[in-house]
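stuck on whats below:

***
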Amino acid sequence: MRQDDGVTDRDAVPFDLASMRKQYRTEGLSETDLAATPVEQFARWFKQAATDGGLFEPNAVIVSTADAAGRPSSRTVLLKHFDDDGFVFYTNYDSRKGRDLAENPHVSLLFPWHPMARQVIVTGAARRTGRDETAAYFRTRPHGSQLGAWASGQSSVIGGRAELDAAYADLAARYPEHEQVPVPPHWGGFRVVPEAVEFWQGRENRLHDRLRYVARAGGGWRVERLSP
């Protein structure tokens, strides 16, 4: 980089980023294609993503939060449930996202289904799941993942990998395989109650289809088309 003007030397960049793009040639998405509710439409698209989408983890979702001062952060988690009440993921409540949501419940979820030239963007407010619901899901996790929920002080600074491995080894000795691991009190779910859900379908010449469900104050949904 030349320090005088801040321009990156082209030779220092291994790819020509300006020319990197794909031309989407998928079929479009019209208002008549949509289901009556965003959850029904999500279920349709999710089934296609999980079966025909060529995705490594179709339930991977980027969760974006902001703290009380408006400082944003994003990370990828796994969606573990969805229904008419919202979209559920689990985490350490002491993690950065957990702390953010305690201060500011507004959240965005992004499902980046690139091989299908599709995205789903959910915006809404997050609230904690009940402890019974959390415990029921925790029991479905592999034994090692249950121990990991205790071993990791998620988002906290640690001295090194050895510290994390030692904490896990101690827990593995305390709770051997087939012995029930208690649910950590600092661990649980968030349910994102959608206020808007956008379905994005890539189209040729960057003229993408963007259809968004928006919750009505009295119940139900209206659909609006967004310019790409």
Summary: The CA atoms of residues 15 and 83 lie 42 Å apart. The chain has a mean pLDDT of 93. The first strand starts at residue 60 and ends at 66. Helices lie at 38-52, 96-103, 131-138, 143-151, 161-174.
